[in-house]
Amino acid sequence: MTAAFSRDAFYLLTATGKAVRVRVGTEPWSVDLIHTNVWGAAGITLCKDTGEFQNPSLFGRAFLDGDGAILVPTQVFLPQDRADIDLAWSKLPQLRKAELIQSGFWPVPADKEVGWKDDVCFLRLDPATARFTQVDHSRFDHLVVEEEKPFTIRRFKVIEPTQAFTSEGGRILPLEEALRTVESAPAPKARPARPATSVDPSPAPGPAPTKRKEPVPL
Mean pLDDT of all residues in the chain? Predict the structure, then answer.
């Protein structure tokens, strides 16, 4: 579970998909269950059968985006789609294919989950509308590594459930990295001091006196 405060309410979000809002702006406080399946609301289908592995495998610390929305970093197991299954099948040796066909595991029914793949997403909650969406991948692709196995899987480069994130200029960054960037930024250059000038206390000489012209006698 993770929590965040935005505007006049606390929001509690769980990995199972529930979202609770606790309004604290007025007395008495009110508690509302605003979602029972935030994954479905955000357009994410989690793989149902992941064996002993927890899904999502990471449900990180919530933080505020620049516009006041609440973001949650997650790493999930998604069911393989038909293209993934066909690609994996094409990579198998003929002997393994024959074994799967003989055992009745191939062809795979269209409505059956077969395996899963890792993916990374950031859930986004808009407090004004209580609506969940996903953050565009371009904002956090630098935090993710991709592997071909043989289909594409995506994982965080560093997986730490307690890692804090922030957003800066549209990009999502680990909080520590953002703080280091601020600390290492060069200080603004000081304007050069104007050269000192000395002032002579004695008064400046005035113009030379002009000779008075005497009248010419008649």
Answer: 85
Alpha-carbon gap, residue 211 to 174, rounded angstroms = 86
Whole-prediction pTM value? 0.76
Q: What is the residue-wise DSSP string for the chain? A: -EEEEETTEEEEE-TTS-EEEEE-SSSSPEEEEEES-HHHHTT----S--TTS-SSSEE---EE-TTS-EEEEEEEEEEP-HHHHHHHHHTS-HHHHHHHHHHT--SPPTT----EEEEEEEEEEETTTTEEEE--GGGTGGGEEEEESSSEEEEESS--TT--EEEETTEEEEHHHHHHHHHHSPPPPPPPPPPP-----SPPP-PPPPPPPPPPP-
pLDDT value of position 109:
81
Side chain identity at residue 73, one-letter code: P
Compute the distance between CA of residue 104 and CA of residue 98 in angstroms, rounded to an integer.
10
Is 114 in contact with 85 (CB distance < 8 Å)? yes
Residue 84: pLDDT over 90: no
What the block records as the tokens of 82 is 């038909």
Question: What are phi and psi for residue 66, nearest 5 degrees?
Answer: -60, -25
CA dist., res. 206 & res. 188, Å (int): 47
Q: Which two tokens stand for residue 105?
A: 């595991």
CA dist 149 and 120 (Å) reads 16
Token pair recorded at residue 172: 């999502």
Please name the residue that has the structure tokens 């595991």: 105
Interatomic CA distance for residues 2 and 212, integer angstroms? 99
pLDDT at position 197: 47
